[in-house]
Amino acid sequence: MQKMKLPKGENKAQTAIAIAKSFIGQPYKAGTLDALPNEQLVCNLRDFDCWTFVESVTAMTLTKYDEKPSYEKFNNHLKNLRYRKGKVNGYGSRIHYFKEWMIQTEDNNIAQEMTPLIGGEEANKDINFMTSHRSLYTKLQDNESFAAVEKAQKTINTYDFFYIPKSKVAKIESEIQDGDIIGITSGVEGLDFNHEGFAIKQNGRIHLLHASYDLKKVMITTEPLADYLNRIKKHSGITVLRLL
């Protein structure tokens, strides 16, 4: 992969930012993981949604720190990030809630959640959007997949859920580092996150490097993260995940 030729940064976060910036201008595309009839690992580095962008950049970063980086190792990292315990076994084995993705990356010592350490508050929120809106998900019509997602929701809800309300993000910007993974929490009932991206500092403020649904490409927000959040009503705040 050409991206593997990019130089490493001082740490994994800086390496992730360099890789993420190399995708600026690539198109946004939703639903790429659901296009095939049977669940299998999809590796698409041409176009992204917000989550596949974060996931692909993270997998590529981890690959650069392998002793002998290869496309096969990149695929393995991608699989271990995307699927519960790294096992592909139907639609229900894929991680569908970003909160679970965060939990698994912490359990695997890939990243540390910083949110409770930098002023995060408890959300006190039950995550159940997918099973409560089954008709929105074609592949949830399968009972086995539905049961797997329902089980995952119950597990997620046993964990604490911290977030930084968007009204307080500007005050804690100094605690956010370049390359931190930013999860944007949702004000929608039953839903954990609306969006994800990477923190990047510009002109002394934290911006978001992300695959933008609105502008349909990978880009850096023109306004600081705090202003971006305040502009979009359904965004309630953020979580911060730091690569180790």
From TrEMBL:
The keyword Transmembrane does not apply. Keywords: Carbohydrate metabolism, Glycosidase, Hydrolase, Polysaccharide degradation, Xylan degradation. The keyword Secreted does not apply. GO terms for biological process: xylan catabolic process. One of its GO terms (molecular function) is hydrolase activity, acting on glycosyl bonds. SUPFAM superfamilies: Cysteine proteinases. It holds the Pfam family AmiA-like. This is Xylanase. The lineage of its organism: Bacteria, Pseudomonadati, Bacteroidota, Cytophagia, Cytophagales.
